[in-house]
Amino acid sequence: MKKCDFANEQEEIAVMFYPRLIDQQNFYKVLEGMTFESSKDTVMQKLNL
Question: Is 29 within a domain?
Fold first, then answer.
């Protein structure tokens, strides 16, 4: 996540890769790497988490 320059890139990547994660209970680590709280909220909402 740190490599992405824009919040919307972080959101797109997180949403795209979530279904492919083997260890989804540790998805919070991905969210911790995001820059903005609003991005975390958006991802959680898009994934219905």
Answer: yes
Is 42:13 a contact under the CB 8 Å cutoff?
no
Split into its structural domains, the chain has a count of 1
CA distance 11 to 15: 6
Average pLDDT across each block of 10 residues of the chain; the chain has 49 residues. List them in order: 75 93 93 91 95
Range of the domain at 42: 7-46
- Kindly report each contact of residues 3-10 with a partner whose C-beta sits within 8 Å and lies 24 or more positions away, as own/partner: 7/34, 7/35, 7/36, 7/38, 7/39, 8/39, 10/34, 10/35, 10/39
pTM: 0.81
